């Protein structure tokens, strides 16, 4: 017979079982407390993700643009001039080379009967087109651009009817902010693109041609190929937004001939390479400069 103590224990266990809540979920059980959704935290996270996306959308293209400019403006070592290889452009297929006398100036209202289109040497205006990496939106007067070439610049000209927006952007990467270079549209040009340095020209069909970089590497500020070595390309008085206009009309009988007949050479500009008469001799700046900033 079970003892009184055992019977009491059994009853206690049974009573405890009845009073304990069931682990099973049933209709009769009260629902658990709802968990609050952290809307503020989620909103902050979405905002951060959106901000990151916006920054990426804004900064990545700019970074890619800067990378493209750096790549375009890095000269090719094998095309950089040296004492032993003074004119590497001689190896570039299609380059036309002509010798021109330097230091022959015309006035702002005179025109020169240039024999090449675009011209790349000969008499020119006493003021040079600003060539500190200037990308002109408008065509510029040839007589001003030629003086820039005499300072050692490369002029990138393009036909706006033959080069699309992407091509213009590609070309501008070679020029933007780069000393001794300039770029402008040239209506009526017989090729899509034409590159000019003093005494040199190269005409091309598209902006992806590898010879563009070769030409610029070989001839931009090449002291062996242009006359006015050491001259500045900065000309603040030359308005990049409203430059002297390009004149496509035929030359009249009063145009200055290519031989500069009637003009006197400016001796301050005879100190460089082709056409200077003193190859390789650096220019000697005039005390105080020429009137109106013209050298």
Structure in words:
Pfam families: DUF3105. This protein is α/β, with parallel strands linked by helices. It has a domain at 80-275. The chain is built from five helices and eight strands, in the order H-H-E-E-E-E-H-E-H-E-E-E-H. The protein has a six-stranded mixed β-sheet. Strands 2-3 form a two-stranded parallel ribbon. The longest helix has 34 residues, at 39-72. The chain is elongated, with a radius of gyration of 37 Å.
- How far is the N terminus from the C terminus? 132 Å
Report the principal-axis shape.
elongated
What does the largest sheet look like? 6 strands, mixed
- Mean pLDDT comes to 84
Residue share in helix: 25-40%
Strand order in the largest sheet? 1-8-7-5-6-4
Helix run count: 5
Question: In terms of quaternary structure, what is this?
Answer: single chain
- Output the helix-strand order: HHEEEEHEHEEEH
InterPro entries: DUF3105 (IPR021454)
Keywords: Membrane, Transmembrane, Transmembrane helix
Region (Disordered): 1-33, 236-295
Biased composition (Low complexity): 1-22
Descriptive key words:
about 300 residues; 8 strands; about 25% helix
Offer a concise description of the structure.
This protein has 295 residues and is an alpha/beta fold. It is built from five helices and eight strands; from the N terminus they run H-H-E-E-E-E-H-E-H-E-E-E-H.
Describe the secondary-structure layout.
Layout: H1 4-19, H2 39-72, E1 96-97, E2 105-106, E3 124-125, E4 132-135, H3 142-150, E5 154-158, H4 165-173, E6 181-185, E7 193-197, E8 200-204, H5 211-219
Parallel strand pairs: 2-3, 4-6, 5-6
Antiparallel strand pairs: 1-8, 5-7, 7-8
